[in-house]
Amino acid sequence: MEEKGPKEGTVPTMEGTVQKRGKSRGEDGFATAVDFLLANARLVLGVGGAAVLGIATLAVKRLIDRAARPPGEDEKPDQKSISETWEELSLTGASPKLLKRGLENSVNKSLPAVIKIEKEDCSPSSTAEVPRLEIRRVPLCVTLQEKLLHYYQSHVTLSESDVAQAKQKALDVCMEIQAFLRSKQPEMPLGEMCLGGSLFDGLQVVSADHACLLVPLLIEEKFWYFVPGEETILNTPQFWMVRRTNLEYFGRGSSYWDKFIVGGYLSSNAVNESLHKLVMGSMNWPALGSMLDCTIRQVMGSQELKLEIQQEQSQLFIDILPIIRFEETVLTSQPESKGNFENLWCRSFYTDEATKLRDLDASDSGLRLCCLKILKAVCKDQPSLRRVTGGHLVNVILHLSDTESDWSEAALADRFLQVITEVTGYLEQGFLPSYFNSAVNLLSELSAEEIDEIGYTFYCALSNPDMLLQRGV
Fold first, then answer.
1. Euclidean distance between the first and final Cα of the chain, in Å?
2. How far apart are CA 143 and CA 429, in angstroms?
3. DSSP assignment, residue 190?
4. pLDDT for 221-232, tens place per residue?
5. To the nearest whole percent, how much of the chain has pLDDT over 70?
């Protein structure tokens, strides 16, 4: 076998041999030390410590390699810098929170570049336009006052267009009824019919669905005497009677209304029945509805004279209410509130109450009307409170206004709860006095069971008022 010797032209020297051996021995010694440390670090430091030590050792080795590299040599693209290496080291030895924060920073650094690349790749011509979704912001109501104001603005108040449409439709029907009565019964002494009620007083809530047609009866004062409720056999201040007088001088037939006398008194039931026959039974409602572009029908099963007007999605009810005015007294014919007494007329304070409440708000810029309308909407939404009328609530607020002067917006929640407390107290007593006549009990129309149900609902609402702002079925 031929032995291989040194290449021709090269002569090995002692100095080169020593340097070569020293270098290889140095590298072997460094590698041996590293291997020894890494092998025993897991036993001494554990897994985490060994990982930290390994990364630190790698960093030191890269520092040594970079120092030994020639100055002109380019770095490899995938080679990490010293700062990145020590960043890895700091992340590995850090707590989980710092480690998570470091990862988020790294992701945030890389996101702009990724988004930029995606934008460059997706040209407008190659992608369809994505429709924008409109997100409806729902206001976050925390306090009771904020919830009441939101409930008032979003549910209680009516749009001007709905109110104007309902008023116009009621006015059209009113004009037709008045023209018909004058042509059919020209001798009937009736005053100028007018529309009234909460729709025309700005007190209607939730929906514009109710109006009242007032039919004034012209009564001759020399033939009739108005008997206050306290002077009647029932001794009920709320219900009056109209007695025929001076029969010895002006016999029967002297007054048109003599035909409606029952037991010496003008019968409200007889007047209602006569108007019912004239208006409900004689008018051609299908033809009138066709002319007004709506459907008109009478409400069956009600003692009151009531019409239902249907137009597209809107619905309007009109009560035809005979009334008698005598000086400052207004008497109305309300069969449902009189029971079986057909000669009684109900004393009405509606106009006085609405005017008083509006004047109080105007004097101090208060929110009594706002509080009233919120409570009316609550009672309309809650099935257990639907027997509570606007008249009940108006009188409670008027009584409370005598002792409470702050009805500002900031006090709305306090006054709201206070009205509920007052109502609960009146229900417990079973007596709610009228503001303009303290002898009149406005709760007399309610049964004991209805009073208990209403009182229980309001009592529960004192500890959880939000339940009242939930719309019922």
1. 110
2. 32
3. B
4. 899 999 999 998
5. 68
